[in-house]
Amino acid sequence: MTVLATAATRTRIGRRGGRARRTTPGASTRTLISDVQRNTRRGKIIYRTVLTLVIVIFTLVFIGPLYFLFTDGLKSTQEAIATPPTLYPHSPQPSSYVDAWNRLDVAGMLWNTVYYAFGALAFQLVFDVAAAYSLSKLRPVLGNVVLFMMLATLMIPVAVLVVPQYVTIASLPFTHWNLIGSPEAIWLPSVANAFNIFLLKRFFDSIPSDYIDAASVDGASRLMILWRIVLPISRPIIGVVSIFSLVAVWKDFLWPLLVEYGYSPTRETLNVGIWQATFGTPQNLIIAASAMAAIPTIVFFLIFQRNIMAGLTAGGIRG
């Protein structure tokens, strides 16, 4: 009886598709190398060697361009454009970064980029949160159709929308205002972000309806429920949407070039200003300015990388 009981606990018989299937613990996990082979001395050596090689290769692939970006700014113009490139500056020139900062007015372009990025963030938080809250909790008529049409725009390449978007900004419907050359030309198009609306709606869907119903019974309005209940709970996903919004405006080049370049030189973003400076500026100064432009985004990521992952994996509320 003991043998039969032990066999019964180790073996399960299930039926799928009309046939009996015998499963054992751990049979559902299949890998290229079994745990027995990996735990041997030879297996451990091979495993650690392959793991180290993969880590080193991926590190070189991702860190290599950053290394050359910052070191080329320390080189002379001749050394910076040399082919093949040198692995390190033979005669470092730290003054290149100071010259690039003063000659290209990196501080002014940095302020303009921050101004555009946080302005776009403010518009996105207002309109995208309202849209996601309406689709998730207010349940408007044809709400699913509207959401489907929003998500369908994610399948359209961004380059295809540049011309219609430019025409719309040049002559707003009904008012016929021309926003070209103004900050609103960068802020307003960033509001229509279907991906951020989808992220917010998915998180709002995970909020228990009991909270909303209890607040409604107490006499809270829809706006008060959003402000007092939904937004405090949704801080992780709002942080993620904010990061995506800031990075999208910071790294954008084509759209600021179309709506700002040539209209006001004092309002150019980092990417547009550095591109314009390529005509008549030494190459090492351009590289140094590009390196300084990349520093804020790198620091921003290092500080908020955990917030990004926590917000993307936050799918519900656990008590």
| Uncertain stretches | 1-27, 315-319
User: Which sequence of SSEs, written as H and E, runs from N to C?
Assistant: HEEHHHHHHHHHHHHHHH
- Given this structure, which CATH class of the largest domain is correct? Mainly Alpha
Spatially, the strands of the biggest sheet line up as 1-2
Category from helices, strands and their pairing: mainly alpha
In round numbers, the mean pLDDT is: 82
Question: Tally the helices: what do you get?
Answer: 16
From the coordinates shown, what is the CATH architecture of the largest domain?
Answer: Orthogonal Bundle
CATH homologous superfamily assignment of the largest domain = MetI-like
Give the N-to-C terminal Cα separation. 44 Å
Strand content: under 5%
Number of domain modules:
2
Percentage of residues assigned to helices: 55-70%
Tally of extended strands? 2
Rg from alpha-carbon coordinates = 28 Å
Shape: flat
Largest beta-sheet characterization = 2 strands, antiparallel
CATH T-level topology of the largest domain: MetI-like fold
Notes on the structure:
The chain has 319 residues and is mainly α. It has two domains: 35-99, no CATH class; 105-313, Orthogonal Bundle (MetI-like fold), CATH 1.10.3720. It is 67% helix and 3% strand. It has 16 helices and two strands. The protein has helices spanning 2-10, 35-38, 41-72, 77-80, 95-103, 106-138, 143-152, 162-170, 184-191, 194-205, 209-217, 222-233, 235-251, 254-260, 270-277, 283-313, and strands at 12-16, 19-23. The chain has a two-stranded antiparallel sheet. β1 and β2 form a beta hairpin. α6 packs across α10, α10 (194-205) runs antiparallel to α13 (235-251) and α13 (235-251) packs antiparallel against α16. The radius of gyration is 28 Å and the shape is flat. Mean pLDDT is 82; it is low at 1-27 and 315-319.
